[in-house]
C-alpha cells in the first residue's frame, strides 16, 4: 500500500514536526496502523458523513483528527488532513 499526502496534509505534518514531537509520534503510529488495518485499529476509526462521505477519521488527540480515504482496493491511501477536527484550517 502507498500513502499519498495532499498539500494540506503535508503542511500539517511539517507543523507537527516543528512544534509537537509527541503528536508527530502519534501520527506515525496511526499511519502505520492505517496501512495494516484501514478500517479498524487505534485512533477510533470512523466513517465520515455528509460532505466528507467516503473518508475516514482517526483521533490524533481530543482536538485533532487524521482524515483519510482508501482507493483502488486498498493500494492507495490518501491523507487529507492531520490538524484540527474536520473543517477548521
TrEMBL record:
PANTHER family: TOXIN YOEB. GO terms for molecular function: endonuclease activity; hydrolase activity. Pfam families: YoeB_toxin. Belongs to the YoeB family. This is Putative mRNA interferase YoeB. The lineage of its organism: Bacteria, Pseudomonadati, Bacteroidota, Bacteroidia, Bacteroidales. The keyword Hydrolase applies. InterPro entries: RelE/ParE_toxin_dom_sf, YoeB_toxin. One of its GO terms (biological process) is negative regulation of DNA-templated transcription. Keywords: Endonuclease, Hydrolase, Nuclease, Toxin-antitoxin system.
